[in-house]
Amino acid sequence: MASDNPRRPKRSLPPAVSSRPSSKSGKRKKSSGKPLPGILIAVIGVAALGGIAFAALQFWNKSPVGPEAPAAAVTATPGLAAPSADPAASATAPTASTSGSGWNVRPDPAAAPPSVVLAPLPQDIVTAIGTPTVQRVAGNRALALIEHSPKGGVREFSIWDLGQGKVRGQKVTLDGPAADPTASSDGALLALRPIRRVTSDDPQKREKLSSEQIEIWAVDSGQKLRTIQAGDDQTNLTLTEFIAPRTIATFCYVGFDQKRSMFLRLWNAETGAMLKEIPWNGYFQPNHIAFSPGGRYLATVDGFQPIPPRIFDLESGAVAGAIPLPRENSTGEHFEWVSIAFSPDGARLAALRTSQTETEIAVADCSTGAVLRTHKLAGQIFQIIPSSSIGPGLAWLPDGSGWLIAGGMIFDDASGVPVFIADGRTLPVGMSSVPFRSIIDDRLVYVSQANAGQVDKTTSFRGLTIPWVEIRQPGASLPVTATLE
Predict the structure, then answer these.
(1) pLDDT tens-place string over residues 345-390
(2) Contact, 227 vs 214, CB < 8 A?
(3) Burial class, 458, CB count within 10 angstroms (exposed 0-12 / middle 13-18 / buried 19+)
(4) Residue 359: which of 403, 398, 319 has the closest Cα?
(5) In order of start, what are the domains of the chain with their CATH numbers?
(6) DSSP string covering 58-73, please?
(7) C or N terminus of the chain, fewer CB within 10 Å?
(8) Which pTM value belongs to this model?
(9) Cα(399)–Cα(42) distance, integer angstroms
């Protein structure tokens, strides 16, 4: 999956104010022999500068991260139509108010998915020279999005049904790569952003790779339904994701350099209409966000900044709450945020952060915003789990009883301890990285490769059964460890 990583915009501080009076004359005045007034003026000037610096620091620390404040009306952006009047969209323009310290989040579950029953494993995906890219489709269904290049620059995209052990519907073929491929949670739609080379409208007329058009494909028929114009040549999209079966979220930068603006937009995948445009102000990184299962809320953390997790209501565009967590660990080190995720029922929110000496999982109640419990591990998470999974750092187990962390550790919420570790240091044969690991049913499902001749390799889904009976026995030696084949 291609992804841009734009430079984080800098916050500006109020300009410095000089406390030294100006003099039109370059001549030095003769001293009156009474230095006291001059000393008082200097002291007052220093105090004034100190007050300005303190106010600037407070402004820096309290600047809102997320939608712009104060509230702004939704307007059409050059190259885009105004938000749709579709009844599914809110009748009022999204606001960005951060006033008040109340909690305005409610559990937001998705529609109940069908029960997952895996077909026998292993399941062979493809035999070829290259290695396909495999990612989990959002939701609790046993679906995977696969991107493969069979020859030249051609790309094939398909939905693999692990319950059936085969590709669902038809493959979609493009002449070149696509950025941020994403699939709806029911596996019915694919959204692809073909990458093309264009000449920019910036003053230097630089060439750039553009992918502001989103193609919507029907998986069952393999037909393209429509193209959504998600921006123009001044638009840089960094996120395309289905957040509900027929709703897509995009995040983009519009404009160049210091005049650049940021927007979070919601689109109707069936009609192509833009439902919302929320001006954004601050940090946004796709691997540091999470959408609630029902698609109403967005939770964010700021990777290297000790800002509390914030939740935004996508219906109103407002900050709906922040989770109070200490900025430092027990030894005074600042935490680095790793991942954040809503529970499958949308009732809890878990956040993973780490420092040099300590890792922490905080669990909050989405009904009240209260922190229910905090689990701690000694050491930095990437040293505890030397895994090369590229999945989310924190993924809830299907039953909501704990998490799969970094693709290699199962952490139990009730007992507060790691109960299972899959050895991430032993990679599948022929692979330099593990692109897919997920808990489905009672198994850790992952991707493996094996030689199939002198050149070709067979890429397969494999499963490692989690030994829950052994784990849950009184006095069990935990964590139980296993090595992937």
Answers:
(1) 999 999 999 988 999 999 999 999 999 999 999 988 877 876 555 5
(2) yes
(3) middle
(4) 403
(5) 123-281 (2.130.10.10)
(6) HHHHH---EE-SS---
(7) C
(8) 0.77
(9) 66
